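Exercise (ungraded).
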Amino acid sequence: MLLTSVILVLREVLEAALLLSILLAMSRFLALQTRWIYIALTAGVLGSVVYGQYLGTVSELFEGMGQEIVNAALQFTIYGLLLLIGVLLILNRSGEARYLQLLQWAMVLAVALAALREGAEIYIYLIAFREQAELLQGALLGALIGGGIGFSIGALFYYLLLGLPRRRRLICALVLLSLVAAGLCLQATQLLEQADWLPAQQPLWDTSGLLSENSVMGQLLYALLGYEATPTPNVIAAYLIGLVLMVTLLISVWLKTRMPGVAVDVYV
Amino acid sequence: MKSIRTFLLIALLSTITLVNFIAALHGYRASMEEAQKLFDRQIMATAGLLAALPVPQTGDRVVEENDLQAFQVWSDGGQLLLRSGNAPETQIGQRSEGFSELNFSGFRWRVYSQRGAAGHWIQVAERVDLRYRLADEVILQSVLPILLGLPAAGLLIWLVIGRGLSSLRNLAEELRNKRAEDLSPLTLAAPPEELQPLVHSTNALLNRLRASFERERRFSADAAHELRTPISAIQVHAENLAKELQLRDGGEPPESLAQLQRSVARMTHLVEQMLNLFRTTPEHYPARFEPIDLHRLAREMIAELYPAFAQKNQEVELEGTAAQIQGDQFALVILLQNLLANASKYTQDGGRVVVTAIPEGEQVLLRVEDNGPGISDAERERVFERFYRVGGDRHASATSGCGLGLSIVQHIAELHRAQVRLGTSSFGSAQTPGLSVEIVFPKTINTVNDTAEDIPANETTL
């Protein structure tokens, strides 16, 4: 039970922790208050418990595919928020400090939604062990190990980002946000495949022999780059579309704010 | 980074967690594999034992076994000779030697088949779920301490970092406690290697600062002192010249000579004020604190300076009651002289000056008010700068002065740990709001370093 727990909890915690690290580091660079994180996490955890409680009702929606559809919708919403955050970060770089408030709230919402989605998965998983006392210890221990590894990677990643040289911070944050955002599109597409909203397809390749999704490294790459050992064409298309859309938008905003006369040499 | 301690705690704890948990995970996996091998060897041993037993020839004997294992012994002809109570009557494995995994009796089993010497088949099976759970239970017990040890590790790291940062904290504490004028080197006992450059450069900076202050003070004091003699000589010569001219020509001496004498007087005043300023620098002044009644001292000083007030028809009053402080007589005389001279000098003829000295709780208030032009809010900060004069040169033509008076007052106040406040007079008018200079002295001076040796024990309390 332990190994299953580790992988499941690690996957959920890592996804939320990496997103949180990137946004928190950007908040620090912009000298924003970091108290928002408490609001976001509290809202996310409470939300995930409520979501877990009403899982039955949610699942019955969309002909029994409610959970997948709602989760996919959550992933797409977070993707949209990351897009907004990326654009605001660039605008802020050129001195448009008036967007800081909006940026802050976009961060709160993105982290709260991520915490809600990932927290709900863990909550639903652990709730299932309530009745099986003999498996509970292993499951909890696994959850602790998975959570510990996930949070540790998140914390170290955060300090790594804080140590970035001043001039590279923004570009690194944007690259990371784009990758995470593309990963979200990939996951949402997988959920839609599970819900039969998209046709099931044969995987294009299988790299599980090279790097298993069930290893810590596999999980890290899954959270950071959307690593998938057996991706279907749909999933790859979703990843690429998500990535290209975000990168194009960010580059165009970047170039616009760099127009002569507008460019202000302010780095985040 | 908000706090080095928090950063180190989180970063170290994360590293320890990451490494330990991944190691625990790896250990768990490896131990599970080993446990499975162990169980397999156990099945093989049971099978070997059964093979070594004499083959029963009666058929279907049933032996009670525990839940974990089940076995069957089949004759070469396909007759069930011996089985455990939990084994079915149908054959549970293939007739080929080695391991296989099969389902029967509602569970999944790992089955080992072996051919006996007499050509019979021995099949021993073990429940996969029980094997797994047994191993899991044992191995979890070895993983658990790693998890439970983490809070203890966190606490220890917190304490150790606190200990490691103590010298940094001491340094910060020493710097915080240092008074602005205290330029003595830091006395951190045996600073760690990492802090040594910081302590050294701070001390070097303090030394340079002290040397430069000292140079400046000495130069100005020496210059002022050296100027005294020639100025006195000029004064005497001017006097002599006035007398000689009077003897030779009779009548009034020429106006240029009178101007010369006034300039020389102003210069004498300037040199005296400069000397006073440098003498009263708080870092260098060898203060001798003794109980002094500020009210009485003010009365004496008013009496001494009365001619100046009388000359301008100014009314001067003293209010308040006996007000004792710990003070330096010489410095306080200079302070009062400056305040009174300023009040007289800058207040119009027929003006009014009120001096108040009164105890207020643990403090003593000395206030000098006049109904002269006063000082605007904008200029109040600047009047303490050396050589700064309100209105710039406009004053110079009307009243002699050098712009050092309030700097001297400030020095002497600092020396006594007193606060200087400038405000408008309580009896000024719209055109002449007047100036109020308030100096709040503490009754006793409690300083860590300097006064303890200056004040005799019996005089520390009043």
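Further reading is listed at the end of the chapter. For now, observe: Confidence is low (pLDDT under 50) at residues 447-462 of chain B. Chain B touches chain A at residues 1, 7, 10-11, 13-15, 17-18, 21-22, 24-25, 28-29, 133, 136, 140, 143-144, 147, 150 (CB under 8 Å).
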